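Appendix B.2, paired examples.
Example (i):
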Amino acid sequence: MPRLRVNPIAFDMVMRNLIVNALQHHDRDHGTIILSAQSTDDAVMLSVVR
């Protein structure tokens, strides 16, 4: 994961919400949730895939 300069409380809340959402809407008994990040010159794209 790239280094980010963020408000740690807000970032924690956003990431928890994304992960919980992926868990709640997973349609199988077992599975994988993939977290990834990709950085460009001026931005970072975070991805949560279920």
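Example (ii):
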Amino acid sequence: MPGSANRYLLFLDVDGPLIPFKARPGRRNPAPARSLEVIGNPLLDRLDPADGRRLSALGCQLVWATTWMAEANEVISPLLGLPDLPVVEWPDDDEEPERGLHWKTSHLVRWAAGRPFVWLDDETTDADRRWVAAHHPTRALLRRVDPYAGLTDADFSAVRRWLARETQLDAR
């Protein structure tokens, strides 16, 4: 998408999309076992280092939208070959979201500040999509990732198709 780099935000969750709940068949560890031992999280072997390249190739501004917060830059980014990314800082309040709404939804819309965005998460629902459509002034793609499979070719294809359509709409 020439000329559109960083126009679109891509909010990225870790647990589920990048670290699936089941091991990915046929995947090798993204780092030597010793490095994973030092980090201390055995689930990190479920990361697919190709996800970093594939995410970067989308041409969006990648943003961590995860409870890992700054630790995502310390642990996940190096294993995926990503630079340090902006991190959404979650509010400390215990304010309950609207009924049926994911707790991240309204905060991500505020963080986007009117920019179009993609949100890859394993917990979004139609309620979140409806709320974003009603409260966000521009377009957004909320892509629910299967938490047992993690990011798949179908997820990347869906995001690329959406971005291509958005680029065409912007060109009009």
